[in-house]
């Protein structure tokens, strides 16, 4: 059970400063002294039982809570046309109107449970079915149920409304789903801190894209934040400071100012060429998950979109968007980016992402990416039709996720050809020479890269999954965060193998995994022969500044030595600047 409680600082408290260390998941500093929102375990309710004569009143309370929650949700649906939020609200509305759920709660009230307790018990029972599921989509269902429960309790007067989360809040929670984060971003949260999670998980990636400082993997933090405290979230070093002293506060405030100055200074290189000191041009692109990110990418000088994660279009109930919905979205991105290219990755559902099949023992090794698409041709064909229709300006590329065999590309291309044929018959224009490339994100794909390259127009290395599958370390699991080392020599050698395979076929190779944004190794990536780096927008200028300081020929020699020895000098390994923790 969860309880949302808002702790506000009325006056400065003379409490001791405490530091908690977690995993830095998204850079940035947030300081919050009025608005820390903790989502923590609920103490057992005191008013569990009511006397039989109070049953009708409790039923009335419950039905008023349903009405008020529905009215609130309907008004969001009417006023908010942003797809992700709209879809979430539709799901909440469906759950609220579910007759079985309503009957079960009413039945519980008839057994003399209070309305609050009946709601808690029924939602607990429903959530239990989903929350330990291995499948991410099922676990998300549990989070959705929790939201609905929360809304009902708000209207019964037992909880603070989520809409009370205001600008600047720091959210402290056991976990956060990507859909939660999108909603919280809309409400202007300044940082998130969670008990679990992995650095390459999709919520961490999204936090980086949205520039929300985030720290993950602090066990029991929801129990460690006292009421009436000030919190600093240092997403650079993964440090949470509770009740900072005046000196610490000043220190962090100065850091924030320094960061702002640094960003401003980086702004001066936007117009400059993205090339090494020895004039070797590198294409620097942006990864996006939402339409809103396109303008920011353009303003930061992105030379293209190297990865559109289209699975973010999958609705929260797991259903897929229609052809027209997709077409409008893809066309909008392509037109805004024109003449730059946009690489649209077909739905990479399954694994830890929404959509896909519901029950799998081991989803990361299961029916995800291209495997799902080839088994669900209607979904695949619909997406390809939408992409092709949007490709009329000739700046779209198609990218296939999770390829590990030549036959997967052949089968996918056959489907693409058949959709092209259909469009020709219908006289619908599209880019007849559209490029079809693949993600290289399994060790298998790296090993057979020279074969895969015969059937691909380009490669894009997905280092997040490549590291996960090479090292056998779940990218979402904080317990194996130390094992999840994208700079492991095995990962670098496999990436190099992919580059060699691309070169043998005369095709380009980009890197769109998180490693591309790792600013200490930019020179190594370029030296390896990667010609395009695609990163979250906030990292664009920093990476550009690194490219502009790199000497291509010397970088080539350095990476050759590293690949041979398997030893990575320390200066390349220091991923994030570790801030001195202030006392
Ligand atoms: C990757 O695996 O590196 C990648 C870019 O894809 P995603 O993170 O969406 O799985
Ligand atoms: Mg991937």
List descriptors.
22 helices, disordered N terminus, binds magnesium ion, six-stranded mixed beta sheet, 583 residues
Explain what this protein looks like in three dimensions.
With 583 residues, the chain is of the alpha/beta class. It has helices at 55-79, 83-96, 99-110, 115-131, 136-156, 178-186, 202-209, 221-224, 246-267, 293-299, 323-337, 370-375, 377-390, 406-425, 443-447, 449-452, 463-471, 489-504, 522-528, 540-549, 552-565, 570-573; strands at residues 2-7, 18-21, 23-26, 29-32, 36-41, 170-173, 191-194, 214-216, 231-234, 239-242, 283-288, 304-309, 341-345, 396-400, 435-440, 458-461, 508-511, 532-536. An eight-stranded parallel barrel has the order 11-12-13-14-15-16-17-18, surrounded by seven helices. A six-stranded mixed sheet has the order 1-5-6-7-8-3. It has a four-stranded antiparallel sheet with strand order 2-10-9-4, covered by helices on one side. The protein is globular. The structure holds phosphoenolpyruvate (PEP) and magnesium ion (MG).
